[in-house]
Specification:
heterodimer; A: alpha/beta; seven-stranded mixed beta sheet; globular; B: eight-stranded mixed beta sheet; three-stranded antiparallel beta sheet; 14 strands; 21% strand
Chain lengths: 628, 338
Amino acid sequence: MATAARSIDTQSQADIPHPEAVVVRFAGDSGDGMQLTGGQFTLSSALAGNDFATFPDFPAEIRAPQGTLFGVSAFQINFGSSDIETAGDAPDVLIAMNPAALKTNAPDLKPGGLIIADDGEFNARNLAKAQYDVNPLEDGSLGKWQLVHFNISQLTMDAVKPFGLGNKEALRCKNMWTLGLALWMFDRDREPIVQWLKDKFAKNPILADANIAALNAGHAYGETAEIGNPGAVPIPRKHVDAAPAEAGLYRTINGADAAAMGLVAGCQLAGVKMFFGGYPITPASSILHALARFKEYGVTTFQAEDEIAAIASAIGASYAGQLGVTSSSGPGIALKTEAIGLAVMTELPLVIVNSQRGGPSTGLPTKTEQSDLYQAVYGRNGDTPLPVIAARSPGDVFDCAIEAVRIATQFMTPVILLTDGYIANAAEPWKVPDMSSYKPFPVSFLDHVPEGGFKPYGRDAKLARPWVKPGTPGLLHRIGGIEKEVDTGHLNYSPANHQAMTDIRKGKVDGIASHIPDQDVCLGSEGGKLAVVGWGSTFGPIHQAVRRMRVKGHDVSHIHVRHIWPMPGNLGDLLRSYDKVIVPEMNTGQFKTVLRDQYLIDAKPLNKVSGQPFRIHEIEAAIEEALA
Amino acid sequence: MNDMTPIQKSSPKDWETDQEVRWCPGCGDYAILKAVQRTMPELGSTPENTVFVSGIGCSSRFPYYMETYGFHTIHGRAPAVATGVKLANPDLDVWIITGDGDALSIGGNHTMHLLRRNLDCQILLFNNEIYGLTKGQYSPTSRVGTKSPSTPFGSVDRPATPCAFALGSGARFVARGFDVSKHLPDVLKAAHAHKGAAFIEIFQNCIVYNKDVFEDFAAPKGAEARQLWLQDGQPMLFDGGTKGIAMDMETLTLKVVGVAEGDWQAAGVIVHNVKNRAIAHMLVEMPFGEFPMALGVLYDDPRPTFDSAVVEQNAKLSEGKTPDLQALISKGQTWTVE
């Protein structure tokens, strides 16, 4: 643990500009360690007291051929002295480790932004791989940006020379040299990173020392360049002040870890053990990885032979009295669909986490999208309703996971929790909650024959059926996917019974609406000219866009919906209190369709399906147009 | 229940539900149901600690007729559901009821992995060499040339051999029986006594779509000559002890030999050793006709089970650790704002 520095070095701060926020993008080959660099720069931002949001963007290939355009891995961070909700529209600074990284990322850079390039990698071979005919560092084509370039590769080799590493290993320290330079540029303390390197390479102190030397050399390069060391290129320097934040303990969190911990927390609040059945799939595997280490929390993880076995085993565990949980991404959820229907029919609690990615089919495995909303709400055979919850940010996944466990266990139903690739991978600062502030929702297994006899499909006031653990004497019963008779749960295909059971299943899920919070307006007023309605990870850009437009005096409000199905009871009236409603989504308009269907309102879509999150200005433009 | 409680032996009736059995009159499933209900009281299990899990198909209706806990799941997935049941509560006595289509076609993947992992359970595969509930299409165990609605001119693909599949998947217990056999309860008992995944192929007569397809060896008349009932430690004799199975030392294959005056040793008849995996492979592949049908416990050599390994690892890694959720969420890259 560290204490956030509220001020670092007053002397240096006085000399350098203090922007409110800065967006930096590290881009390099997928083997260059850009995600690691970004991650450590993020930690440094946290320790400097900045608010931040990150966006890791990496290829689907594990090690794409070196130097290629499709092998570029990038990490963007937006850090600032006020609330940061998105990873930033356009970078102020681009650090490009090779020609391919420059080519694929420079177009996003702000006009006048700064490019720092490793010219040691701009050789004929790499230029050709990046499809440059001439060296862009020399032909003036980057004229609308500030450009500094030097041979980071050579400078790194020089710095780590004393440690006797091979060429390949020495060059691997390049990312730490770059990080050292970035730390100097933004007036950051090196010590936490040095400590991290020592821990990381505890078993290989030479590598630790070499990386620390590279980090220090990058930092020193900035310093000596500033004082006019001949041959060094001066680099602009900035200091971003700490953001005001509530006092307390903070940590960085990504959506996958938040899901794992939230599920554990939910199970503790429910008083049940967790069984997690999973099958590897990008970007959902990280939840399985995290939970596999939580054994002392009563978690059993099972890597199944396929997606179907993953959910089927979870259903089996729920039947046996633990909470079954499974997670996947769109294609895996598609495979699980028949089993989800079984969980609806047998009315067993189950949590299904979908880290959405670009589709259809294999689609864009490492890119983000929100296009599985129809799949979650409607995507099953038969009339098969189930609750759907969507998280808006990495930290929010924690609370949404608890909510999913609550609804699953209280209502004896499978629940789908939607996150996405962006939420799963992105990191944000998270104020660690006080677990004693969460109200427990203990489950009660039926363990005796109730008055009036045992009815496996009898109902409580919420229409939930009893949860009975096999092993309980006197309550033997059989369940299955064939239509159940009201109360008894015996097989029954009769018309009246199917009508009644269909109505009960629908009524139970609809009834959840009275057990969730009313829909609020997260920014703006109830009623007015325009509501921008969002769900999931579009929260950040929508919130910032609405905030900016309100500062400009526009009548626009932001409504963010967490409970996608059933929706809060007051949502229809709330939406009708605005003249216009627009719904930005990273799909072709799925939530818009649901809103239109449920409330007969003229919700207008704003859609983006590029595998990239919305930019704030894209939503601002839509607001402007809607209000024009 | 503590050790002092006297265990009252149940009767077959105690394992019957009040549900009307819905199989076709004369179906082999009735005989298997009776055999299971007759065997259960002998096993020392209680109905409340017993769970029958099935997939989809005629045989998979089985759980509805057993007065135990039961889960009629979806097509092919019973092994996966059963895995979750057993891992969540390893004290339960788990039985999987499946068929040739359910276990070897749509659910082949799960059957393989359940056997490979060695989950402690009994798998009863009712093999009738046909899809019954969907009205008679050929199945993955149907013989070449099977005429069915989907193969009106005869099937052309080669069938799977369930016991060979099981052995190939790493099964540690493989047995065979048939629906009306008086030996079936003994096979069930041996399966239950085996700690780990116990795979039993039960030939079952579908009287509507594949009637009497096993008559060639299952018919009472001439059974002696066509059935080789294997018993651990006993010579592999059949046909009233006049024939036996021996090893052809030149080709390293099995052969049928004549036994004169009971001197099976002179004839080189093999003594069945349920732990001999190599012989088990040969027994399951013995072509019927030239050889008798190998029945009974073909292979039984227990190994540590998946569920016990999971329980052990969970316990070992939790040892001495207090689950502290607040501490868990406070880990990682943290800092304090004052």
